[in-house]
Amino acid sequence: MIKDRKKLYLACIIASSLLSGCGGSGTTESPGPVTPPPVATNIGGKVIDGYVSGATVWLDINGNGVFDESEPKTISEAGGEYNLELPEELKECISYSNLYVDVPVGALDEDTGPVTEAYQMMLPARLSPLTDEAIFNISPLTTVLADVVKADLAKENSNAASCNALKENTELRNSIQAKLDEAIRNVVAHYNIAADTIFADFIHAEDDATKQLALNIVKGLKASYVFMATAKAKYPDASYIRVEYFQGSETDNQGAYPDAWYRQTAVWLPDGFASELVKMSDDLSQEVRPIYLRKESEKTWGTGKLSITHDIASQGGDDSPYTCSSSEAVSVIKDGVSYKLDNGSSGGQADTVEDCVNDGLVRDPRRYFYVGYKAQSIDYDARFDVGEAQSDYYALPDWTQLEDKAQPLDFSELIAHFETLEYKFDTAVDNSRYEAWSKRSTDDSHGNRIQIDKYSTGQWERLSYHDDGTYLKECSQDGVAWGTCS
Length: 486
Known about the structure:
It is a single chain. The chain is α+β, with helices and mostly antiparallel strands. It has four domains: 36 residues, no CATH class; 191 residues, no CATH class; 140 residues, no CATH class; 41 residues, no CATH class. Helix content is 20%, strand content 34%. The protein is built from seven helices and 22 strands. The strands form four sheets. Strands 10-11-12-13-14-15-16-17-18-19-20-21-22 form a 13-stranded antiparallel β-sheet, sandwiched between helices. A four-stranded antiparallel β-sheet has the order 4-3-6-9. A three-stranded antiparallel β-sheet has the order 2-7-8, with no helix packed on it. The termini are far apart. Keywords: Signal. This is Lipoprotein.
């Protein structure tokens, strides 16, 4: 369309030397100034579940996640094709705004027929300059990616940004770009697909495996669209709610039910976070049983933060009882190093969620020490679990029942003890001090990520990511000789 308009404009310029204007009367009067037609930019792609026609595609210019009449929109046609026209002043916003598609009841899915349940899909902002070759396909895979990005932003209480805010705020733009890159890695790892597949037309490519994955995701998207109203009513003060339906969960008896469906709800609240994992019937209409429920509150505590967490979990299979527990954790960052002490608290077991009692903080026979730091552009994390048989369990004796102790306690005391832990990645560990420990290095400094984990069991694991986002997993007993994991 742009080329056609340019041709018309040039034709008018040439003709103006002979006529009074394009399509003029042929008089000899001097032509007036020629006003070029307004320039518009077209972007296009496909709405893909099967190919979907009759869906509304719109660009979220102000970043509020709700369609406003001033925002550009269009309707998808046969083959899922859509063309969205943007006036010149909004051209740059395609790089800084999310694309949404509302699929209503009555739209046509070329694979399955008329749509009987409304749902929504989206494509996250690319945060890169618009090119003539850019294709903007919107599919279940791009929707999962967008949800991950939005969830990561919600963790930091960072609301969706408008086009103008992202154009003007380099720091915010870089932050969201980093989250987008991380989200792509997460989706690639979760579904074991190449990064390019997320944005591709997998129907045209005759990629049957990805097409089946997309069908399963859409089944979940439709259920999520319906359940979201229930979640919003339950958590009216939430800054963000994410609902995801999927098959198979490692949380439920270590993935013993790969074909079972689950609903994961994550809720970001003004004072904390809540989540629930529930096993669902195959048609997603009925809850079978809760698997894991968590409620976490967080507040400023001196120069650090205090979080209180309540957990109810039944992870041993369909007939397993519920474990009821709570924990308190205090954290602080000093000189770029993060320190976190987690005091577990046991509430026993129960046959049902309703019978769980976990609102007290009876000290659990374990404590957990976490340290995170960065060195030479590599991120490092370490975790140490100690029990009653280890002396570190009794260290920091005043650092329990922390709710009202922000004033009398001094973080320098906590940090001093943490510095006795062998948390540096290459430092040898005295295994007698801990029930278990693990360390991780995450190296993004050379482009593709290399992640290395080592454990108190002597096992090492290395993930080496490729350009397409997939990775090679290797194992070792010494961190030197690597081979296939058993």
